[in-house]
Amino acid sequence: MKIKVVYLIAVLALIFSVAAAIVPATPVEAETPPTFTVTLVLTGNSSSARWPVPLQSGDKVVQFRRDNAVLQSNVNATFTVSAPGSGNMTGDLSGTISTQAANILNIPVPVPYPSASTYTGFGLAIARGTFSSSSPSGSFEAIGVQDYNYVWSPDEGGRSDLTVYWISVKESECFAGQKLIGTGHMTSSSPPGGGAATTTGVLTFRRYLASEITRLAPDTTFTGTYTPGIYRSIPTLGNDTLFKVTETPPYNYYTPTEGHTFFEDGSSFTNLNITSGPFFNGTMSKSDNSFSYQFGSTVLGWGVSTGNIITEAGNISCIMLTDLSSPTAQSGYIFSKWQDNSGAYENKDYFATTSATVSYPDLSINGSAIFYELSAPVSASKTEPTLPGNYTVDAKAEADTEVTKSGSGTPTITVANYSSNPGGSLQDDIGKYIDVFVPDSTNVDQIEIKLYYTHAEIAGVDESSLRLYWLNGSSWEQCSDSGVDAGADYIWAKLRPDTTPDLSYLGGGPFAGGGGVPAATCFIATAAYGTPMAEEVDVLRDFRDQYLLTNPVGKALVELYYKVSPPMAEFITEHPALKPIVRVVLMPAVVMSTMAVNTTSAGKMAILGSLALVCIALAIWVRERARRLGRGR
Description:
The strands form six sheets. An eight-stranded antiparallel β-barrel has the order 1-6-7-9-10-11-12-13. The chain is an alpha+beta fold. It is 19% helix and 46% strand. It contains seven helices and 37 strands.
């Protein structure tokens, strides 16, 4: 038995030497992360129609980033139908933006806030735009609302400072299944006498991947009563344009006849009791401005409001957009102003689609909403188109991750970093959560993910046990083809049609790094050195993880080793006199493993051939020595 044990150990040392010579290591490079912002330059006619709106002292006007304004005097405001505009965007999205016709309310009195006393007017606007990106390839339609201050003079023209919100409502290609909420400040200027206006500024988007969007169950229902505001008549012509919020193209209503168009001030008030859903027993309140055509049984138009959802758990500050398409039916969107949320809703975004009916004459409301919680926002991301063949997206700067695509397909790949755990608890969680989004896996053979870590991040975790996990509902499960390269400090997982998860999971699903996998033990080395914490055992374990477990041949050798080595390790433990001999036999493998992990490829090749010969010589010597000992008995 002693002869077989020592001889097999020598053979295994030789195998380690040969494997190290044929499997090179991969260096890690750093990269500077971008921010997810876009710079916009838009041009378009300032208006295609402008109509007077006789407002009076006490009328209320909705504002989005400040308190709603209350007019201190009578004034003739203007209601504007803005012509379509177009422009370019640069930054993390490179492409174009086009806006369909928008509605604007201009009020030529100083904003009733001390900080805005130098302006000659203020207003609000609503528009729909399409953001079309060529790099990365994708587009999304969004609705934008803004409040603004402006200065106007006949000699110098106009200048406006705008606070803008955009919410995506239709996403495609690399943005499919996602939600984008943009905020920013912009400046618009127009020449004296009117004409083309130019708008420039920077938007910052919070981008939520599919795995970060959770439909809250059950759906929300609500009841309440609507209190109308004060209506001011707008002398529009027939076929004038009123904005449409949720309907399909064309994105506007058109007034059937002259007149019959009204502005409703913000003294209107709706207080709703939430009767079911995640905000059960809470309230939803809002103040509206609306622009609508009302004649006979026909109602066409839109409303915009700011409000709050208040529950015992906290407050959600919202912007609400509503279509008015009949005397009774209303549909629209709600999205939260995340920076103003509080309590349990702090630092979370919410988005909802709504539907409600208004009964006459008591103006009672019954409605429902489908709410989505947008949580664990991506703190950094990188999106890159790929080429046929093997292609690597280097997102180490954004998410400590590399993604390599194999196959003739050319998908656009997005790699994102989560700022917090998007799922449940994870054993030996190292605090790293990523998302790899591949919207189209056609002709993709394999996606390999490498998640890099530092030794500080895995403190207290058995490095050899690290694996990548995928989120199955709310539970983390280990990827079926996953391992760790301890020499290069990354966890890897490969996704193919035959793995769990397979490539379809990359339509929007997170990954996390964690331990908890029973660590494969270097049985013989542990027995020889007396402890699994010995430095020599660590070296052999690093070599195994970095070189053998990264290729099919190496994996087969490791599996064979774990089948045959436990009884040999037990025999060595029971016969302490063998330990010094086994340590001598393992010495070439330890030296070779140290070199393989810590030296260059050229150095390895120069010495490993000699080590292979030493292993052969040692095997022969051990065998002959054992035979002589056997004859002596």
